[in-house]
UniProtKB/TrEMBL annotation, chains A, B, C, D:
<protein>
    <recommendedName>
        <fullName>Chorismate synthase</fullName>
        <ecNumber>4.2.3.5</ecNumber>
    </recommendedName>
</protein>
<keyword id="KW-0285">Flavoprotein</keyword>
<comment type="pathway">
    <text>Metabolic intermediate biosynthesis; chorismate biosynthesis; chorismate from D-erythrose 4-phosphate and phosphoenolpyruvate: step 7/7.</text>
</comment>
<dbReference type="GO" id="GO:0008652">
    <property type="term" value="P:amino acid biosynthetic process"/>
</dbReference>
<dbReference type="InterPro" id="IPR000453">
    <property type="entry name" value="Chorismate_synth"/>
</dbReference>
<feature type="binding site">
    <location>
        <position position="48"/>
    </location>
    <ligand>
        <name>NADP(+)</name>
    </ligand>
</feature>
<feature type="binding site">
    <location>
        <begin position="293"/>
        <end position="297"/>
    </location>
    <ligand>
        <name>FMN</name>
    </ligand>
</feature>
<feature type="binding site">
    <location>
        <position position="54"/>
    </location>
    <ligand>
        <name>NADP(+)</name>
    </ligand>
</feature>
<comment type="function">
    <text>This reaction introduces a second double bond into the aromatic ring system.</text>
</comment>
<dbReference type="GO" id="GO:0009423">
    <property type="term" value="P:chorismate biosynthetic process"/>
</dbReference>
<dbReference type="InterPro" id="IPR020541">
    <property type="entry name" value="Chorismate_synthase_CS"/>
</dbReference>
<feature type="binding site">
    <location>
        <begin position="125"/>
        <end position="127"/>
    </location>
    <ligand>
        <name>FMN</name>
    </ligand>
</feature>
<feature type="binding site">
    <location>
        <begin position="238"/>
        <end position="239"/>
    </location>
    <ligand>
        <name>FMN</name>
    </ligand>
</feature>
<comment type="similarity">
    <text>Belongs to the chorismate synthase family.</text>
</comment>
<feature type="binding site">
    <location>
        <position position="278"/>
    </location>
    <ligand>
        <name>FMN</name>
    </ligand>
</feature>
<dbReference type="GO" id="GO:0005829">
    <property type="term" value="C:cytosol"/>
</dbReference>
<keyword id="KW-0057">Aromatic amino acid biosynthesis</keyword>
């Protein structure tokens, strides 16, 4: 219980259901005197927002964020920052008819068993819509990390079904609605998405995240390692089924001589470690990768049950992403930003010798 | 900081360095009246213990655990359980000569940068020896879960370098020092390990963990999902670079129709989800998989630096596992047990209606 | 940092400044299927609301609470409950002129030193207005405790300056705006308040809280004792300078034979312990008492400094309570309810043997 | 549950029963490179140790502390510090005969109801012996605060039953076994204690704690205020029934003009606030006061029940303090040190701008 908070010094606590009045969060522990306004947050919310291309759900939300507290005359005050986004485009009618259905591949089954009651409208709390607040909170962390420490956190769609990015261009990424880095394969990607939509099916994806400028020393062994906390934050994103740091699962077939990164007085010669050794950042780029499962909400029917445990066939109409991976890049960036921010503050606490006040 | 505790209701806090006086932990939140004695814990410590075959480090520790508190007349009292294992076979001399060296692929570099001081003997706190206490604490969780809820947590070596298990036999697993489930490939495995040792090299591995009998309803959305907490616990194990739940990274190329598990009044027809939907257990087997990197401590030299940032060549003598994966199975089981135990208690807190006392 | 959350299983996180857009909180960990609507919360907000008598600040807020999430079709769902109260009657102009002043006896000095920036409007985050959200969250805990366990939490004004209550009548308490239990002294109280107001001065107060129906067994030694957590929650209320459990400071002159409560097969014969032994509830009434300092915002001038460390004289106009104690009763009740709720759930987690789901 | 940890960044987790094998704790989050050896801790353990005068329990323990980890070559390494004190003088036989008795005024009743099982030897976990580890952990915090920030934490016995200290001399305090500051009244105190012992009775006490050199800015509103956390830490000490900060309960009859502390460019002119405003330290001395109840273990019999709920008369033989307050001074100092240390690190985390590593 009480599982809706992440972080120890920089904490983010979220609330809100897909079709409730609003989504919100409290960002606690943000240092004072950071310039902050709605626009800083809106930029990332807009990157995540649905309805921006024909390849994502047609639900149209403005997702306009309001800062309710913690900012005074354009600067953070060190007190908790309250954020809110109102839900404006809920078509709850769409869900009336699946009121009693347990949608396969969804949280319907488990929420029903855990709580004995559920808000069935759009998945309620389990909807990907919940990630709006992760992105909002992450935007604050991102800004602080960039301004105060020149840390950049960026991600991209590395693979969508059979289509793998080969060239990585950061320019390309922000120029297409997939956050895909390989310009030569974008037309292929769009064709694949169109065929999927015709088929009424969905597909999984892989997202890579790279954090540059991270100082060495972040991460708290033994349990609160930086990699362990990143795994926690990233696996907590809806639909994520796998997390890798650095070489990830490739290490299974690597030999020690291949994997270990040589060090010279000028730095490391490779980065199989993904920027983390012994759970602490090395100062190299932090590299993480996640796998997102395909959406289970499909036109194509599947066997399931209803809340009376009777067999039914479920086919989902309504508005859904054929690939949740497409919009997951800003969400994954946000989680990495939140974790890094928390560890930056934690590291300072133990290791800084300066006391203000 | 203060990163040496895991869990919220069932918490485990550990201390100890590879070559210090002792390793210990405090298990807090264990329910009262569980039958518990040293033997219950020793069984798992012995499964993890080094020096049991020629394929693991020849360091010989008895790893005898002492229960210092929390148990009275053979039963837990509900108060914190203090556990201790004394270090008996420290050959600190082995390490004198690498005092100033930063071993590539190790935590030497990051501990040095983070703390500005380090216990260089056997990696100090960053040594895999620290996992002794995870196994000890996990044994308590395992016993409670088995006795009270008939939950079983078992793991095996699924792959070691190029050698993949094809047949999974739970009998075979406990009959070989690799925890390998495929009897037909064990001789192949031993030959491979011998050649590795001759070569002076090491290799990575994959461990699979299966938890059976887990009730549906465990896990706390949004951030403290069961899968997110499992990812945290498993990624916190030394050398782990990747974590998967259910289909894991295979989902990248799966379509929605393949991935989603059909449900019938008698249960699920498949388990791509790995027993978790929306961060909450479904009641199916929980399936997790981890990737462990190859040991970096090798006879074969590698470029590195010393603490004065001068270039050096590092070759490690001393006693090391050519594959840390071999002994990681009980450690991974322990982490899964600790996480499940914590979530079982958390779930009760919010959802049980019974108040004792 | 990140100090705006209380509780471990039933957690309350608040945000909001006196003159910001809104105050809000997230109540996480409330069990599912509790009947809940705005009215349940509004009742307590109205008990605390200013402007209800000439003896409290004339600031007039409706303090209308909105439930933004966590409740579906009139029942809690087990997901976080988002609450919000908009600020409607901020007269920020009142504060423009004290922009640079450090008001003696206020948090101005410490916020300024800690954060180097502050929202000077009405004390910003340090305003007693922040307690609105404590009361709102406490109302949810109160309702659960009452409905599920028949636990009642009630408080009263035990002393205001020289005027001590001698007769305690629960009926009387809710019939006067002081929450004073002794009808014979109310006119005396009103006369005293009027003279204070003429004088332009303020006065301290003592509030007593009594919780009945609390089962034995709540509280987690050693550090998270029920009495320790009550002390934490009560001391966290603005202006509180002292907390007592049971006999409180009278124990200094009590002998063991006087203090210890005799036990019979039918229960305890006295309650000097205040319902708590060894940090765990005994099943008797839990009795706590707090001391609230007099408001420092007075017409009468006092030496102080401004933010340039120049000497100034500060006299506060604007709308203030001559005795914060008057409205503190519902706030103290709320804190006790939140702490008891948290411990009820924690106790269940460790001691219940039932697993739902 | 899991209530045996205190602190967020500087955390102390303890274990151990009065008559178990050992008491221990893990101090996590101590900054690296602090000079530390057993003697630093032993000094305070000796100040607390029983059997040092005829006025305290005659139980004779050496209470020799062992540092098991976290210190290397005389300096802390930043990793968890494991501490242990073995129990050497347990006379468990003394307790056999009260095996089934519920001692009035003790935790016997509540542990029995909470856990359904208890270690009856010397109160088990609920024994004041548990405070040994608080003192040990506090000694580490004290040393860091003194060396790095010149913060001093000292306490004294302010009142024992009817005998109040009038003159406060820090020299006198360490020269008598009562930690009493008024030399003129010590003979009176000894006479009173002797008469109490003859009578077979016990008495309560008041301890005052003063922390000097505390920088302004420590404390995290709203819930984790410095005063609230001090109240938590102090109320968690066995036998404490009341906590005051600054003027404490005297504020009930104070007027605003009396209570608020005037400020000048050179500092405050008084300290009714006890060094804390709005939950944050002002830079003045922090002043706290606690009330400790009289021991309930008396030769004089009292009505009670046994574990079969049958009426019995309980008279305690064995070795007990007629006034627990006498030895409580070092314990209260330790708790204040632990809380200040935690808040110092937390404050740095949010407000320091320096990142090491």
């Amino acid at each position: 219980m009480a599982g809706n908070t992440i972080g120890k010094l920089f904490t983010v606590t979220t609330f809100g259901e897909s079709h409730g009045l609003a989504l919100g969060c409290i960002v606690d522990g943000c240092p004072p005197k950071l310039d902050l306004c709605e626009v800083d947050i809106q930029i990332d919310l807009d990157r995540r927002r649905p309805g921006t291309s024909r390849h994502t759900t047609q639900r149209r939300e403005l997702d306009e964020v309001k800062i309710l507290s913690g900012v005074f005359e354009g600067k953070t005050t060190g007190t908790p920052i309250g954020l809110m986004v109102e839900n404006t485009d809920q078509r709850s009618r769409d869900y009336e008819k699946i009121k009693d259905l347990i949608r396969p591949g969804h949280a319907d089954y488990t929420y029903w068993h855990k709580y004995g009651i559920r808000d069935y409208r759009g998945g309620g709390r389990s909807s990907a819509r919940e990630t709006v607040m992760r992105v909002a909170a992450g935007a604050i962390a991102k800004k602080y990390l960039a301004n105060q420490h020149n840390i950049q956190i960026r991600g991209y769609l590395a693979q969508l079904g059979p289509i793998k990015a080969e060239k990585i261009s950061w320019e390309v990424i922000e120029q297409n609605s997939f956050f895909f880095p390989d310009s030569e394969k974008i037309s292929q990607l769009e064709a694949y998405m169109d065929s999927l939509r015709k088929e009424g099916n969905s597909i999984g994806a892989r997202i890579n995240i790279v954090a540059t400028g991270v100082p060495s020393g972040l991460g708290e062994p033994i349990f609160d390692r930086l990699d362990a906390d990143l795994a926690h934050g990233l696996m907590s994103i809806n639909a994520v089924k796998g997390v890798e740091i650095g070489s990830g699962f490739d290490v299974v077939t690597q030999k020690g001589t291949e994997h270990r990164d040589p060090i010279t007085p000028n730095g490391f010669l490779s980065n199989h470690a993904g920027g983390i050794l012994g759970g602490i950042s090395t100062g190299q780029d932090i590299i993480a990768s996640i796998a997102l499962k395909p959406t289970s909400s499909l036109r194509l029917p599947e066997q399931s049950i209803n809340t009376h445990n009777e067999p039914v066939e479920v086919a989902t109409t309504g508005r859904h992403d054929p690939c949740v991976g497409i919009r997951a890049t800003p969400i994954a960036e946000a989680m990495v930003a939140i974790i890094l921010m928390d560890h930056l503050l934690r590291h300072r606490g133990q290791n800084s010798t300066k006391v203000l006040g």
